[in-house]
């Protein structure tokens, strides 16, 4: 047994040493881009529209001067720009590599929004004017235990739901730039109820995936991804105002999409960022990974939106120091307060 253990140790050490050597040599550049091209040519949503015979030799030629793997990742921008992969990205260690940014700049936002954004907003739930529930749902990544992460936020909402007699709710997505959708939608289960809430379509706009919430479970094509333990009555008929702006993107847009087709719902603010495509994680060599665009997002009625356009259009009239002076909030309160 001792001899076998020594052999295993030697083999493991040798393999690790070779892997480490590879990850710091010129050979690693070829290994990495071989895998990157392979994944994109097989699974990228717009793969048939990319002239791979033109772009791949160009990228290979551009890679020649690089002496190490990490610096070669700059060429991802060239690849993604050519492939129009503006919703995809590669992550390595603490760095993110994507196409050339073409989104909004600081001048497109109010001073109030920029000031709040600089604080890295986190999830908030509170009551405004003793009558209206307010939820700030920012972009976020899922933690190791999606259930626990989602349950904590759900419980905060439920605490207010069960202790206050509110006229309606405001869901603020102005800082939701994307991330993982599960911990965004699960806490909002009471508002969405037991319904299909969004879906995914292929390049031909045929639906290939239905996402449903059922009894607190998040189901993707009938497979349970995660869940919360719901408490009390649903709020799926309660008035809800969803606030968006041009920073609302990716999973933030899916969160808004989930409310499309819901009764007693209004959309207020600005059109969203326009990243209404579905991304999946794909692992790459040396601990890198990518988020790759592989489908279109659609609402519960199988409708695709390039952008989500609000019912009431409001630009740069934010007030996060006093939400009751925020024009978006004021319009939300008007909607909720109307008695039919």
Q: Any overview of this molecule?
A:
The chain has 340 residues and is an alpha/beta fold. It folds into 2 domains: 2-85, no CATH class; 106-337, Alpha-Beta Complex (2-enoyl-CoA Hydratase, Chain A, domain 1). 34% of the residues lie in helices and 23% in strands. The chain has helices spanning 2-22, 27-43, 52-63, 69-72, 75-83, 111-117, 146-163, 182-185, 189-192, 251-257, 327-337; strands at 89-92, 95-98, 124-128, 132-136, 168-172, 195-201, 207-214, 217-220, 223-227, 239-244, 265-269, 277-283, 289-298, 312-313. Strands 1, 2, 6, 7, 8, 9, 12 and 13 form an 8-stranded antiparallel sheet that branches. Strands 3-4-5-10-11-14 form a 6-stranded mixed sheet, sandwiched between helices. Strand 7 and strand 8 (217-220) form a beta hairpin. The longest helix has 21 residues, at 2-22. The chain is elongated, with a radius of gyration of 23 Å. The termini are far apart. Mean pLDDT is 92; it is low at 1-23. It holds the Pfam family Peptidase_S41. Residues 102-315 form the Tail specific protease domain. InterPro entries: ClpP/crotonase-like_dom_sf, Tail-specific_protease.
What fold name stands as the CATH topology of the largest domain? 2-enoyl-CoA Hydratase, Chain A, domain 1
How many distinct folded domains? 2
* Low-pLDDT regions: 1-23
| C-alpha-based Rg, rounded | 23 Å
Percent helix? 25-40%
Please count the helical segments. Answer: 11
Give the percentage of residues in beta strands: 15-25%
């Amino acid at each position: 047994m001792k001899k076998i253990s020594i052999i295993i140790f030697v083999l493991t050490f040798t393999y690790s040493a070779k892997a480490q050597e590879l990850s710091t040599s010129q050979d690693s550049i070829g290994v990495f881009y071989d895998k990157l091209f392979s994944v994109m040519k097989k699974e990228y949503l717009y793969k048939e529209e990319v002239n791979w015979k033109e772009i791949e030799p160009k990228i290979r030629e551009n890679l020649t001067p690089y002496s190490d793997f990490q610096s070669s990742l700059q060429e991802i921008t060239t690849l993604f720009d050519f492939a129009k992969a503006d919703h995809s990205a590669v992550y390595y260690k603490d760095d993110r590599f994507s196409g050339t940014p073409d989104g909004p700049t600081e001048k497109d936002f109010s001073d109030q929004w920029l000031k709040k954004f600089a604080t890295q907003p986190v999830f908030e739930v509170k009551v405004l004017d003793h009558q209206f529930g307010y939820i700030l749902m920012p972009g976020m990544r899922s933690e190791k235990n999606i259930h626990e992460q989602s349950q904590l936020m759900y419980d905060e909402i439920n605490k207010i739901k069960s202790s206050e007699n509110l006229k309606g709710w405001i869901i603020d997505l102005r800082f939701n730039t994307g991330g993982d959708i599960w911990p965004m939608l699960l806490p909002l289960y009471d508002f969405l109820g037991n319904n299909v809430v969004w879906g995914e379509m292929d390049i031909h706009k045929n639906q290939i995936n239905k996402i449903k919430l059922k009894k607190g479970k998040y189901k993707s094509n009938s497979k349970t991804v995660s869940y919360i333990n719901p408490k009390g009555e649903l709020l799926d008929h309660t008035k809800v105002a969803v606030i968006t702006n041009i920073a609302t993107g990716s999973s933030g847009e899916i969160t808004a999409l989930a409310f499309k087709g819901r009764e007693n719902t209004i959309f207020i603010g600005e059109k969203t960022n326009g990243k209404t495509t579905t991304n999946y994680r794909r692992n790459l060599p040396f601990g890198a990974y990518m988020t790759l665009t592989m489908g279109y997002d659609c609402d519960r009625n199988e409708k695709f939106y390039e952008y989500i356009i609000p019912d009431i259009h409001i630009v740069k009239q934010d007030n996060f120091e006093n939400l009751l002076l925020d024009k978006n909030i004021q319009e939300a309160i008007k909607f909720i307060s109307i008695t039919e």
